[in-house]
Specification:
CATH topology of the largest domain: Rossmann fold
Distance between the termini: 46 Å
CATH class of the largest domain: Alpha Beta
Structural class: alpha/beta
Radius of gyration: 20 Å
Strand content: 5-15%
Number of helices: 15
Largest sheet: 6 strands, mixed
Shape: globular
Order of helices and strands: HEHEHEHEHEHEHHEHEHHEHHEHH
Length: about 350
């Protein structure tokens, strides 16, 4: 009999640094599939096993739910009535959903015109007070930090340590599925909380449950790659909206995670990201552009012969579902064929096309 999904807090409570007796505000997040993609491995030269950790199948469509269940649970447990976050989209939807679940008010600050419609719609649907600012995500984050310091408002961005406690559970799940750590983990890097959380989770499981640690390949978009360039970017630009961040809040920790693991952080172009998105879709996995950065980075490392994957186990982290940011697909979609409602017309097109 398949074990029921209890949500990440109840499944991994003994591994989480959280207040004793804290009830879980949960939407039964986590337990996302680790999908083998041998066709993609073959297209990259083969010789290694490749999986996709598809975080787009969390309740609000992204990995953010793992951290948000813990952040909102802790905030609610200590009596907070309002949660606030800055967001490029996924955090907004997740914060709104879990705040609503907890009976809390949620406020999300987003950069005007820089958030994908699917993500903005989610935040609105879940009942958030959405405020747009004429500025960047980094400016929005600075504002919400100051508000949370001045008032009794719970900050639920990845600066909140409880977010990382939840997000590290994805590393636990990967190890539980493989019965070991992978040799390499490729992951998109935006505000850098997720790469930090994964490394934290792998190190904890290594010391308490399984042996082995992965090397981590962090991947930024070239138009938004402060950790690769070595300096902040005031006006980051990339089609991968979820990682369009010029001043990562946990940048130093991300660099440390890559270094400690024996890995690295690299950047890829928007064209490489979109190509990787199509390649993932060819294996039946539709992800938002930012999620495809992990595959784009792995592909670049293989093609430049900067990585040896022979007989290795490799995991790609795909952080959000394609429905989160469908605009690029729709814009590139050629006009569909229109036929007469006749069997002969349909047969001719299908059999001769």
């Amino acid at each position: 009999m398949t074990k029921p999904n209890l949500g990440v807090i109840e499944r991994y409570r003994s591994y989480l640094t959280i207040p004793a007796g804290m009830p879980a505000v949960t939407l039964l997040e986590g337990n996302t599939p680790l999908i083998p993609v041998p066709s993609i491995s073959k297209s990259l030269g083969g010789g290694f096993e490749l999986w996709v950790k598809f975080e787009g199948l969390n309740p609000t469509g992204s990995f953010k739910d793992r951290g948000m269940t813990v952040a909102i649970s802790e905030a609610s447990f200590r009596g907070a009535k309002i949660a606030i976050c800055a967001s490029t989209g996924n955090t907004a939807a997740s914060a709104a959903a879990y705040s609503t679940r907890a009976g809390m008010r949620s406020i999300v600050i987003i950069p005007a015109g820089k958030v994908a419609a699917g993500k903005l719609a989610g935040a609105i649907a879940y009942g958030a007070d959405v405020i747009q600012i004429d500025g960047s995500f980094d400016q929005a984050l600075d504002l919400v930090v100051k508000l949370s310091e001045k008032h009794s408002i719970a900050l639920v961005n990845s600066l909140n340590p409880f977010r990382l406690e939840g997000q590290k559970t994805a590393a636990f799940e990967i190890c539980d599925s493989l019965e070991r750590a992978p040799d390499w983990l490729a992951i998109p890097v935006g505000n850098a909380g997720n790469i930090t959380a994964y490394w934290k989770g792998f190190k904890q499981y290594h010391s308490e449950k399984v042996t082995g640690l992965p090397q981590i390949l962090g991947v930024q978009a070239s138009g938004s790659a402060p950790l690769v360039l070595g300096y902040p970017i005031d006006n980051p630009e990339t089609i991968a909206t979820a990682i369009r961040i010029g001043r990562p809040a946990r940048g130093e920790e991300a660099l440390l995670a890559a270094s400690e693991s024996g890995g690295k952080i690299i950047s890829v172009t928007d064209d490489e990201i979109l190509s990787a998105q199509k390649l993932l879709a060819s294996a039946g996995i539709w992800v938002e552009p930012a999620s495809a950065a992990s595959l784009a980075g792995l592909k670049r490392q293989i093609e430049s012969k900067n990585i040896d994957l022979e007989s290795k186990k490799v995991v790609l982290v795909c952080t959000g579902h394609g429905l989160k940011d469908p605009d690029i697909i729709i814009k590139g979609f050629s006009k569909t064929k229109v036929l007469a409602p006749e069997l002969k017309s349909l047969e001719g097109y299908i059999l001769n096309g």
